[in-house]
From TrEMBL:
GO terms for molecular function: oxidoreductase activity. SUPFAM superfamilies: alpha/beta-Hydrolases (SSF53474). Keywords: FAD, Flavoprotein, Oxidoreductase. It comes from the Bacteria. Belongs to the GMC oxidoreductase family. The keyword Oxidoreductase applies. The keyword Zinc does not apply. This is Esterase. Its cofactor is FAD.
Amino acid sequence: MSDFTRIEFNAGDGKPLFFLRLTPPDPYRGPVMLVHGMSVRSNIFNPPVARPLPHVLADAGYDVWMLNWRASIDVEPSDFTLDDAAVHDHPAAVAKIGEVTGWDTMKALVHCQGSTSFMMSICAGLLPDLPKVTTVVSNAIALHADVRTLMDIKMPFAMGALRHRVDGMDAQWGYHAPGFWAKVTRSLMLLHRECRNPVCRMSSVVYGAGWPVLWRHENLDDATHDWIKGEVGWAPIAFFEQIQASLKAGELVSTGKYPLSVLPLRFASQMPKTDARFVFMTGSMNRCFVPTGMAATFDFFEKVAPGRHTFQKMHGYGHLDIFLGKDAATEVFPFILDELNRE
C-alpha cells in the first residue's frame, strides 16, 4: 500500500474515519470515491492481482479515494446501522474530497452495504452540493434486496437465535470463536467443505446461501483466495436486522433512528433527491444478493429518468469476485471505466 496516502477525517458524529488516496501525476478526470461493503476494508479493492481496480482507475486519470467508513475492519467497531453511515459518513467523506482537491464534481463506485448506505445518503439529499456526485456505479445491491430462497429461510432463524446473544458476527470465527453462540455458529462450517480456507467458509455461513457465497472459486487465483483470510471480519447484529427488515419490506428501509425529515422510512417509495446518473451492476451468479434485486432498482430509476441509467450483469461472476477476480481487469474493469468516463 506504499502508493497510497492516508487522509484522516471525522464523520458527522465525530467518529474517526480515513481514506487511502492514490493520485496519478495528472488527475485530469477528477476524483472517484471507492466505498467497500460490510466487514471488510478499502483494501478489498486492492487484491494481490496484476492490475487491481484502483491502479486501473489511476492509470486512466482518476484521483482514487478509497473510503474506510464505519463498517471497515480498520475502524473502531461499533453497534451501527446503515442509517448512521448515510447521515454521518458519506456526507463528510464527499465534503473532505472537495476540501482537499478543490474539484466541484466527483464520481463514486460503491459496493454492497457501502452501496446501500451511500444510496440512502444521496437519495435523501444528504450529500453536499459541492463536490457534486455526477455518476454512481453501484455493485450487488442498491434500493432493493433479494436473496436466495434458502437465505430467506436461514436469516430469520439466525436472527431469532442470535439476537440478544451476540453483538455481531465475524468471519474470523473460522479461526477462533469466542463464546458459546459463536461456537454454535462456527459449527455450521461443517456444511461448507468447498475449500480449506476457514474465513472463506465462515463468510459463507454468515452472508448467504451458497458454496461459496461471496465469490466463485474459479474466478480467484490461489494467492487472492489465501489473502482473503485477513480481509473479512466483524459486522454488527443491528446491520443484519436492518437487512432482514428490508427484505420483508421489499425495499431498503431505515431504522427510524433519525427523523423522517432526514431519512425516509422507505427509499424506493419516493423520488430520489439527486440527478446523478446511476450504473447498476452485479454478478450474474451472485449468491449473496441475487441479480433480481438490482434489476428492480434499475427499473425504479428507469421510471424516474428513462434511458439515463444502466444495468449490467457480469456473466460468470458472483459478489466480490467482480473486484477480486484474476480476469476482472479484462472482463469487468473496462465496463466500469466506460461508464465512469461517460458524461
